[in-house]
Amino acid sequence: MADDKIPIDDLNLLLAEHRALLTKIAELREWATAVGEHGIPRFGEMGTRMEQLRDRLRTHFEEEEKGGYLSPIVEIAPRFAKEIEELGGQHGELLLTLDRFIARLHETEPPFASWQQAMREFEEFIGALRQHEGRENTIAQAAYGQDIGAAD
Ligand SMILES: [Fe+2]
Ligand SMILES: [Fe+2]
């Protein structure tokens, strides 16, 4: 089944995009922490920055879903099919959660008791996203290393 190999470029692209997303998230967190230290909340600006993250995430998810979500991995390592299906279902939920957060950040009177409360919500979202991406990394590397590496 030599033709079924996951192209190394695809795997590397996925991992590189995940790293780029982590960098983006780290920048956002740094900015939000600095705002917290200055003591004046900037909910609207956080909303705009989160919009940029959402657009980027949407593109990333679309890329992963092209031709069937992580389909090259399902083909080569069917034992991950169930977990991959579960992860695929998270894309919509993650975007919806982010959209709701953004909408509240942009309200004339944002419904957050404090900047810290908005930060907690931000961290909660980031935690869920990181977990999602981390599981994808683990699956992709396991599929590549065990199912393809072993065949070489
Ligand atoms: Fe994903
Ligand atoms: Fe991903």
Layout of helices and strands, plus pairs?
Elements: H1 8-38, H2 43-65, H3 71-76, H4 81-105, H5 115-148
Helix pairs in contact: 1-2, 1-5, 2-4, 4-5
The structure holds fe (ii) ion (2 copies).
Briefly summarize what is shown.
The chain is mainly alpha-helical. It contains five helices and no strands. Helix content is 78%, strand content 0%.
Structure in words:
This protein has 152 residues and is mostly helical. Helices cover 78% and strands 0% of the residues. It has 5 helices and no strands. It has helices spanning 8-38, 43-65, 71-76, 81-105, 115-148. The longest helix is centred in the C-terminal third of the chain and has 34 residues, at 115-148. The protein is elongated and about 50 Å long. Bound molecules: fe (ii) ion (2 copies). Residues 18, 60, 64, 133, 136 line the site of one fe (ii) ion.
Looking at this protein, list some descriptive labels.
152 residues, mainly alpha, Four Helix Bundle (Hemerythrin (Met), subunit A), 5 helices, 78% helix, binds fe (ii) ion
